[in-house]
Design a protein that fits this description.
The complex is a heterodimer.
Chain A: H1 2-30, E1 35-45, E2 50-54, E3 70-75, E4 82-86, E5 94-100, E6 105-106, E7 112-113, E8 123-128, E9 136-138, E10 147-149, E11 151-154, E12 162-167, E13 175-179, E14 182-187, E15 201-205
Antiparallel strand pairs in A: 2-4, 3-14, 4-13, 5-12, 5-15, 6-7, 8-11, 8-14, 9-13, 10-12
Chain B: H1 6-32, E1 48-53, E2 64-66, E3 70-71, E4 77-83, E5 96-101, E6 109-114, E7 122-123, E8 128-129, E9 135-138, E10 143-146, E11 160-162, E12 169-173, E13 182-187, E14 189-195, E15 202-212
Antiparallel strand pairs in B: 1-5, 4-14, 5-13, 6-12, 6-15, 7-8, 9-11, 9-14, 10-13
Classes of the chains: A mainly beta, B mainly beta.
Chain lengths: 206, 213
């Protein structure tokens, strides 16, 4: 009897195995896929910095004849602007300022004149930028609200940097602005010799 | 501890024995019937396989395709990604579209669309933006690699396009000249999107669906 039982059990197990096998087969068949879902990912972040991301490399002042005492330049144009990006979360206030990098206007040789002297020695002035509505342009959704032009100063031994634009606490954060049309006036000594003079300047935002 | 009386033990053994014989009886009864079984082999017409696999040939569950990370910008900007990449140093980094046609019908197409083609948008914790009119599929570089024994004969040429409404974009499709009972690995589908200016920083995602029919 016990041998019979063992045989029956074996048969049942075999049958069960077949059932299981075909169950798996059926499952595999139903697992055939004719579609696949997946995800596209796009990370957009903030740089976490306040920076000038572009600025004019060269500002050409008007050519003048010997004997003339004023020359004019424009820092930033519609095509070649200063672009400030504030990507610091929680920061709204910043200041864009202009300062000299060199000591004097120089022709690369012996001739030079000052940017921070008297009118006769040479003086560089930044025009009054307040009320200049075209000065600041927020890009895209960025507003110009809370950002104002300053200037209205001349370089001197006591004025080593001039604020051009100031964003106050009401300015929009995490945005980008273009700044252009900063009028500059350079007073030149009357007896200055002819030449091509250059002066290095630096823009800073902080 | 309470000692079990012989009577109790005898009762428990009796229950176990009864249980054993009941089970045995069931097996015996079951085994005594004729075990007729009908073998069923279902061969579905049009059985397709469409799935992501890695470079080792194993299915990739929950695949994702990352666009270039971007900085938030107030103006529109472009970012790109590649759907289907093979040949990474680590084959587990590969993501290959594996297409199998187990059907005698050689004609099939694989389409791409948003999982929710009606209301789907790129979403993140900080905001969302639409993919329509912004997400483009460029099939210029698509690579169709037949599995051994198969060819790339009979494949139609598609160019891709920009998602503009709820319509999908066809990535791959075959004619009557294509092989049957074959499989192909598809890679190098270029994706490009315009991120609208002013989109806030965040990790955006958009669920997509490949469909073979």
């Amino acid at each position: 009897v016990s041998r019979k039982v063992v045989k029956k059990i074996r048969d049942v197990l075999l049958f069960s195995a077949l059932v299981v096998f075909f169950s798996f087969s059926a499952e595999k068949l139903s697992a055939f896929l004719d579609s696949e879902v997946f995800t596209l990912d796009q990370n957009i972040s903030y740089s976490g910095t306040l920076e000038i991301i572009r600025a004019p490399l060269l500002v050409n002042f008007t050519s003048i004849y010997v004997g003339s005492t004023e020359s004019f330049g424009v820092l930033g144009t519609q095509e070649d602007m200063i672009r400030v990006r504030n990507h610091v979360e929680g920061l709204n206030e910043w200041t864009l300022s202009l300062a000299p990098e060199g000591d004097e206007w120089s022709d690369g040789g012996v001739n030079s004149f000052k940017f921070d002297g008297s009118l006769e020695e040479g003086r560089l002035e930044v025009a009054d930028l307040s009320g200049n509505l075209d000065l600041i342009q927020g890009l895209g959704h960025c507003s110009e609200s809370g950002i104002e032009g300053f200037g209205g100063e001349a370089f001197s031994p006591s004025v080593e940097a001039i604020d051009l634009v100031i964003a106050n606490e009401t300015a929009q954060g995490l945005c980008v602005w273009d700044i252009s049309g900063i009028d500059l006036i350079q007073h030149i000594p009357e007896d200055q010799k002819a030449g091509v003079y250059q002066l290095g300047m630096v823009l800073t935002v902080n | 501890m309470k000692k079990l009386s012989y009577k109790k033990v005898a009762q428990m053994l009796g229950i176990l024995l009864v249980g054993f014989f009941l089970v045995s009886a069931q097996i015996i009864v079951f085994a005594q019937t004729t075990a007729e079984s009908e073998f069923v082999q279902q061969i579905e017409d049009g059985a397709h396989i469409l799935q992501f696999i890695n470079g080792e040939g194993n299915p990739v569950i929950g695949a994702s395709v990352a666009f270039d990370p971007m900085l938030s910008s107030p103006i529109n900007q472009y970012s790109s990604a590649v759907l289907g990449i093979e040949g990474n140093l680590d084959p587990l980094d590969d993501l290959i579209i594996y297409i199998g046609n187990g059907s005698p019908n050689p004609e099939w197409t694989v389409n791409l669309n948003a999982l929710d083609a009606v209301d789907g948008v790129w979403t993140s914790a900080s905001g969302s933006y639409d993919y329509k009119d912004k997400l483009t599929v460029d099939l210029t570089s698509i690579f169709i690699n037949p599995e051994p024994g198969c060819t790339a004969n009979g494949f139609n040429s598609f160019v891709g396009g920009t998602f503009v409404n709820t319509s999908p974009i066809t990535l791959v499709g075959t004619t009557m000249a294509a092989d049957t009972i074959c499989a192909w690995r598809v890679t190098d589908i270029d994706l490009e999107q315009i991120i609208p200016g002013g989109t806030l920083g965040g990790d955006y995602s958009l669920d997509m669906q490949l469909t073979m029919n």
